[in-house]
Specification:
Blueprint (H helix, E strand, L loop, with lengths): L1 H35 L3 E12 L6 H4 L3 E3 L5 E9 H4 L7 E5 L8 E11 L6 E7 L2 E7 L1 E11 L3 E3 L3 E3 L3 E3 L2 E7 H4 L4 E5 L4 E3 L3 E5 L2 E4 L11 E3 L5 E5 L1 E14 L12 E3 L3 E6 L7 E10 L9 E4 L9 E2 L5 E6 L6 E9 L3 E4 L5 E5 L3 E10 H6 L5 E6 L7 E11 L6 E2 L3 E9 H20 L1
Length: about 450
């Protein structure tokens, strides 16, 4: 039995040895055939990564940067000894871009070079596909632009209006080729959402569009937002409102018919918007008051509309001023001149305890203006001149305004302003002087 076991062990050892010897012989035969019968082979390796770098090149020294560089791959056909390249894969080759010809800005077609990562191997590069890449070299810069909002699908309810939306932040820093940055004339934050608003709202967007001076859209891929992020776009809703315009008259005698004055306003209403959403839709305002005595042929008056609008209201009509003109020629207006004697001047509201003496003898060249038929009928007896001394409390000689009007006509008025000189004296002092004068006179007679 022991002899049988020894024979089996010897047999197994002999069999293992034979196998090892067979493998060695097979390798030797393969090497021999590879060298003698099949010395070289061709092999194609696909998707070899391309390494791109300008570090240490003339392009880098000139401050150039590459646009359009990306993760390229190439297919490479190689030739070499079977025993060297037979097992080659993507990790055994390195593909690089030759940037030695880049010296200034421009688009370059650069050659791709491929070599083995094993310096001891004899490998021939038969073909590279693609064998070139196109790269744009530029000077990169940054610039700051105002950014506005575009929201073509946002509107307001009927009777309302949207003001221009406001973007926050209001400025954006853009990076890109200096030649491309110079083309930007407008930057917009675009809101694509659709909505009909009845009140103020805010929306967020990260969509930015660049425009040139002609309003054409620029290629956004050429630009990078330095502070890339989202933009808040605020929408303010205003109510539409019609404001009717009028003009008032002052210094008008009682009973005068202001409706008879033939005037025209260049605009009788303007359209405005107001932030007060509960405000009325129509309103009438007065642009100002015109003194009747200032209205004469050839005269006109101009009013600033915006100064009369309520706080927060915005004029949308494009009309900032309104002019008031008169048609006296067609309506046949005429003038007539009078001299007012002092006896026709009436003093009203004299100060108590004072004597009033009108020193002006007459008021010459007092002109009246009105419809021709009424002017022709006007007489001195129909004219009233009054001096209201309710504002006087001191004594002395003063110059005071006289109010002159045609009491007999409600369509004729006095042009310009007039004044007279009045002497105001304390009545007690005047009486005392009078008594002293009388006593002196009596004494003289007695003597």
């Amino acid at each position: 039995m022991e002899k049988v076991k020894k024979n089996r062990t010897s047999l197994l050892a002999t069999d293992l040895g034979l196998r090892i010897v067979a493998i060695i012989i097979a390798v030797i035969i393969w090497l021999f055939l590879s060298i003698t019968e099949y010395p070289t082979i061709f092999k194609t390796i696909t998707n070899v990564p391309v390494v791109f770098s300008i570090e240490g090149t003339a392009a880098a020294e000139k401050g150039l940067q590459a646009l359009g560089s990306k993760d390229w791959t190439v297919d490479v056909e190689i030739k070499g000894m079977n025993y060297e390249i037979g097992s080659y894969g993507v990790n055994d080759l390195v593909a690089t871009v030759d940037t030695s010809t880049v010296t200034k800005e421009g688009v370059y077609s650069l050659e791709i070079n491929v070599k083995s990562t094993h310096s001891s191997d004899t490998v021939n590069i038969v073909s590279v596909s693609p064998d070139t890449v196109e790269v744009n070299f530029v000077h990169i810069g940054t610039d700051v632009f105002d950014i506005t909002a575009s929201a073509p699908n946002i509107s307001a309810e009927q009777g309302m209006m949207l003001r221009s939306p406001v973007v926050s932040p209001s400025k954006v820093t853009v990076e890109g080729a200096e030649s491309d940055l110079s083309k930007i004339k407008r930057v917009e934050a675009v809101v694509d959402a659709e909505s009909v608003l009845s009140e103020a709202a805010s929306m967020t967007t990260d969509k930015v569009v660049f425009y040139d001076e002609n309003g054409s859209v620029l290629d956004g891929s050429k630009y990078t937002l330095v502070d890339a992020g989202k933009f808040d776009v605020s929408f303010d809703v205003y109510k539409k409102k019609t404001v009717n315009l009028t003009v008032g008259f002052k210094d008008v005698p009682t009973g005068f018919n202001t409706a008879s004055i033939p005037y025209t306003l260049s605009e009788t209403s303007v359209n405005v918007i107001t932030p007060k959403l509960d405000d009325v839709s129509e309103q009438t305002i007065s642009l100002g008051m015109i003194s009747l005595s200032e209205i004469d042929e050839g005269k006109s008056f101009t009013f600033d509309v915006n100064q009369k609008l309520q706080s927060g209201e915005i004029n949308q009509s494009g009309v900032d001023t309104v002019t008031m003109t008169f048609d006296f020629e067609t309506k046949k207006y005429a003038k007539k001149e009078f001299t007012i004697p002092s006896s026709s001047i009436k003093i009203i509201n004299p100060p108590a305890g004072k004597n009033i003496n009108v020193e002006t003898k007459q008021i010459p060249s007092v002109k009246f203006f009105g419809p021709e038929t009424d002017i022709n009928d006007l007489k001195l007896s129909g004219i009233t001149a009054t001096v209201d001394l309710s504002d006087i409390s001191t004594v002395g000689t003063v110059t005071h305004a006289v109010k002159i009007y045609a009491a007999s006509s409600n369509t004729v008025w006095c042009l310009g302003t007039h004044e007279i000189q009045i002497d105001i004296e304390d009545k007690a002092a005047a009486d005392s002087r009078s008594e002293s004068s009388d006593d002196s006179s009596s004494s003289s007679k007695a003597d």
